[in-house]
Amino acid sequence: MAKYKRVLLKLSGEVFGGRRKYGIDLELLEVLAEEIKNVRKLGIDFAIVVGGGNIFRGVTGADKGVDRATGDYMGMLATVINSLALQDALERIGVPSRVQTAIEMRAVAEPFIRRRAIRHMEKGRVVILAAGTGNPYFSTDTTAALRAAELDADVILKATKVGGVYDKDPVLHKDAKKFKQMTHMELIQRRLKVMDSTAASLCMENRIPIIVLDLTKHGNIKKAVLGKGVGTLVKNE
């Protein structure tokens, strides 16, 4: 039996890039869609916030001379491309889904409307949330925290390529220590880069737990939803 009734999954743009690290890895997307389908069978409500760093990242663009606000809008449009690709992968295996965007583009997706998103989930549809908050200077991590609060999500699953939260980068440091559990305040004070401080603060204020897990390991999303010890759990004291 699932521990959480309504889940918000945060997917970074890096996840969509897969082994290529840029563009969209369609084979990986098929595997991800199957994972989501298996979790949906548990009868939980499922929303997904999508990043766009595999196509364009506003902060990186700003470093190269692109106006920051313009770069962020470009990044928001990149999240829409990823969201449509994910929707297509889900629909092809029989998982009904809807893409909702914070910037209106009715020809390709619905605008984000809180009550409509909740109704879609209640009807068994996966809701894919694109275009960030619709405002520059906010990360998709902050979008995930905001949407989780708006949609009354029980937990945020932050999908990464490492096994949880570490005291330092495990890719660069073999002696990095993994945390099984920590508080939102510890995450903020340690300035760990797994989630920005604005997003972590929002989760702390709204008492939304975060599970940071390795998406590359098959079945991790399902294990997290079932309440099994996977990744790192971040929650209020």
UniProtKB/TrEMBL annotation:
GO terms for molecular function: ATP binding; UMP kinase activity. It comes from the Bacteria. Inhibited by UTP. Residues 5-214 form the Aspartate/glutamate/uridylate kinase domain. Pathway: Pyrimidine metabolism; CTP biosynthesis via de novo pathway; UDP from UMP (UMPK route): step 1/1. One of its GO terms (biological process) is 'de novo' CTP biosynthetic process. Keywords: ATP-binding, Cytoplasm, Kinase, Nucleotide-binding, Pyrimidine biosynthesis, Transferase. UMP binds at G52, D72, T133, G134, N135, P136, Y137, F138, S139, T140. ATP binds at K10, L11, S12, G13, G53, R57, T160, Y166, D169. PANTHER family: URIDYLATE KINASE, URIDYLATE KINASE PUMPKIN, CHLOROPLASTIC. This is Uridylate kinase. The gene is pyrH.
